[in-house]
Amino acid sequence: MFIVNLFSVVLHTIVVTVLLLHDKEKVYLKGKDKIVPPFRFGVEDVATKMWFHKLAYPGQCLTNSHLDIIFYYLRKKGKYAKEPKVKFTTTDCLFFKTIHALYEKFIAQKKNLSLITAQHAIADYIRGRKMLCGSPWHLCDHVFFIIHMETESHWILGRLNIEERRMYMYNSLSTAMKDSAAIKACQPFAVLLPHFFALFDEFKKENKPVCLDPFEVVKVDGLPQQTSNDCGCFVASFAEYFIDMKLIPPIFDVEKHRDRLAVLFYKYARMKEVEFIDSEDEAPPKGPKKNLS
Fold this sequence. Notes:
Strand content: 5-15%
Largest sheet: 5 strands, mixed
CATH architecture: 3-Layer(aba) Sandwich
Organism: Cannabis sativa (Hemp)
Transmembrane segments: 6-22
Helix content: 40-55%
Protein name: Ubiquitin-like protease family profile domain-containing protein
Strand order of the largest sheet: 3-4-5-6-7
GO biological process, one term: proteolysis
């Protein structure tokens, strides 16, 4: 009986140890998770090692912070490239929340068009004024949107082709139910953006009024599918494949993509820290000039 009880205790200890090792929130010892000083990534500072752990290891959901930083560097890459292959810009997670909140109010008020004004935050995004490295949309061919399906706890990618007036939906967890929910999540963009475009002369062609019909939402088929909680990595990679004008492969090595992103961001942060490098858009704002007269 003693041997049986001892075996049970040992087995229980092993199981608990394994569970702790796989507890993704308890990777680092207490007090050992901090990055001091924090890594500066332009749009946000990263102060914990867990940020990199969540980015590097498959099966972990990426956060708003991860996607905002990744998409900032994507649009920075496009804006400052000597010969960009694609004219594009991106938005951020706040844009998604802002346009969804406006859409809810728009529908609740029976499609009240007075809600759509040139002073709204969405209009500032379109002008290229709302984000670091933002570009005016009328100078771009494509705009990438980070879209979070809250009821599904799932990220998808939206890509607006401005010339075609068509929005492409990239979903790494494609089923009839998920695709229906994903298309629904794209509706605020498809319905509201034509009205915002009508506010700006830059989107008019041959002095004709901008068409107010909703953008067509098209599902992109043949995409690799996730098997775990890796949708954020798929979203980032789908955008990067398009920007680099590369075909998205049917077989997707998510571990490889996560490793690459984590290593690139860590090396870049360390380089900035060691060499005291800040690009112009990331540097602290200069104070007002003193009047010496």
